[in-house]
TrEMBL record, chain A:
Major site of localization recorded for this protein: membrane
Purpose: Potential subunit of the gamma-secretase complex, an endoprotease complex that catalyzes the intramembrane cleavage of integral proteins such as Notch receptors.
Keywords: Membrane, Notch signaling pathway, Transmembrane, Transmembrane helix
Protein name per its UniProtKB record: Gamma-secretase subunit APH-1
Family per record: Belongs to the APH-1 family.
Organism, as annotated: Monodelphis domestica
UniProtKB/TrEMBL annotation, chain B:
Organism for this UniProt entry: Monodelphis domestica
Membrane-spanning ranges: 92-110, 143-164, 171-193, 205-223, 254-273
Protein name: Presenilin
Gene name as annotated: PSEN2
EC numbers for this chain: 3.4.23.-
UniProt GO BP: amyloid-beta formation; calcium ion homeostasis; intracellular signal transduction; membrane protein ectodomain proteolysis; mitochondrion-endoplasmic reticulum membrane tethering; Notch signaling pathway; protein processing; regulation of calcium import into the mitochondrion
Bias type Polar residues, positions: 16-25, 62-72
Role summary: Probable subunit of the gamma-secretase complex, an endoprotease complex that catalyzes the intramembrane cleavage of integral membrane proteins such as Notch receptors.
Keywords: Endoplasmic reticulum, Golgi apparatus, Hydrolase, Membrane, Notch signaling pathway, Protease, Transmembrane, Transmembrane helix
Family affiliation: Belongs to the peptidase A22A family.
UniProt xrefs under Pfam families: Presenilin
Feature: compositional bias, Basic and acidic residues: 30-58
Amino acid sequence: MTAAVFFGCTCIAFGPALALYVFTIASDPLRIIFLIAGAFFWLVSLLLSSLIWFVAVTISSTKNESVQRGLLIFGVLCSVIIQEVFRFAYYRLLKKANKGLMTISQEETAPISIRQLAYVSGLGFGIMSGVFSLVNILSDSLGPGIVGIHGDPPQFFLASGISRGVSLNSFPELYFPLIFSVSRPFFWSLFILSTCWLFLWFFYFPLYQFT
Amino acid sequence: MITFMNSDSEEEVCNERTSLMSTESPPARSYHEGICTEERDKEIQEKRRGSPCHHGDADQCTPDSRGSTRSSSLEEEEEEEELTLKYGAKHVIMLFVPVTLCMVVVVATIKSVRFYTEKNGQLIYTPFTEDTPSIGQRLLNSVLNTLIMISVIVVMTIFLVVLYKYRCYKFIHGWLILSSLMLLFLFTYIYLGEVLKTYNVAMDYPTLFLVIWNFGAVGMICIHWKGPLVLQQAYLIMISALMALVFIKYLPEWSAWVILGAISVYDLVAVLCPKGPLRMLVETAQERNEPIFPALIYSSAMVWTVGMAKVDSPTKGALPKDQEQEDDWSDTSGDHSYSETYDSPRCTPLHVPSYAVEELEEEEERGVKLGLGDFIFYSVLVGKAAATASGDWNTTLACFVAILIVSGETAEGTQIQPSPEPSLLTQPWGVFHSASFIFVAGERRLRGISELGPSGLSHTQKEFPW
């Protein structure tokens, strides 16, 4: 695969996120910090869910294909739930941090509003999740080989770029936290959000299979 | 672009001294003659002292100093506080950038140059091999290796403290110069050789000699004497990366992880114990009110005003890593231990023409300092993750983000509480936390992600085509 594929895929996947970063976040150091913190929280949630999956797999140590698949699906479910939990936890943490920041700065207006925080942390979550799903594929695309030589679709990279790209992954990450910050009936919106998210995942799962 | 600014350097010394003293006593003096920006900085610093006052830091701020600042510029207060917070965040970002650069250089080298992932023997400090048949034996060997390494580090640190106590400054300076000579010339030569081999580029000896001579000579001048700030920073990052690469190559895997963990623990101990060598070093330096060594410290700005949030890492933990390689690195152990003390020779290498000071915006006048040991420690962490992860980038990225968070934590901790002890406290915890997180993450996640994520499904499918 050529460098063109690599760069093209990278730009497709990370272009919107990079644009968002450059134009809105890069100028304010506080936002950068919250972005990285958001990415970190996503990582921790992934770690937890992979631990759970790992434990489940080692406990049920069978070579049965369907059991493994079932466990994988269970793992995905778990990971979605844990991601949501972590998003909620991060939201609480940010609320506290905001209060702390306001105390330190001793002024009426907070240095960063809760909406901005929601946007930035959602972007962080999304970027991290997109990066994690895509970066190995990108590094493979730099190496030798021919796509689709065994009958797989030759548009593998393009499709991965689009589907796993940060634009698609981070869309829910970005905008649902915004809803979080805005809506008052908090738990109700959380419920709606989680079901939407789960629905999206199950919808995408067969899609991922094709790509 | 080397300027001879002896008079300025003396002013720098004065400023450093007075700023040193300011961090110990309540700040109620002006350090610079009539420069209004400095007054503002002082006020800002007092306010920052003021804000942690309600944490009960009684000896750091006095009520009257607070009152005086309040009365002085009320209308600027809000702006100052806002700026304070932004400065805090800005300092964290100023730390992120060099740490990121160093890690990028290390990871790029590891992924492309085969030399640094080949096993070609081990250091004499880690004599036990890890090519053992059983896991228990391997674990035992790595623990023994760690013990040896840590004891070497402890011995070196104590030696350094003794030298410092008995004022053998020339010896320390000579040691430092020897170590940077070796790094800048020998390791660069090896690195360049390997990179050229990897990309199959031929270079004749005269060219090589010219390149390395220039690189090394300019590096020595920049680091130990005067030079442009950016060049200095670049050199410090490069030598940290070189050092980290050497460790990544010569430390066997399990030993490396155990050593990283042990260093975090040692860091905690050495810094918090009353008789710990680092603590003694800091206290001696503070008693004498003088900077410690021509240090190997990364600094991000030219002017240090009024003891502003110095993020000198009491990363004793990282230092030991330096020391073990050759004797010449024990100097760095000193750098990390103290928090505010800073040496005059360090000031002089900095190129501080007066116009530059005016050019700098207020936000950039204050800088952060981070010990090079930190860079090396973080880079070894990430480099080891990149080297052992068998082509998996996820682990590397995870380590990278975790390290950013840790260094951010450290920086924030020091920002909020400028006194030496809290920064000493934060750094080891941060390091410990990151090392443990990364270790756990590296192992578990490697297996978890490749199967769990959606990419996992296609990954398994993808294996087959090639």
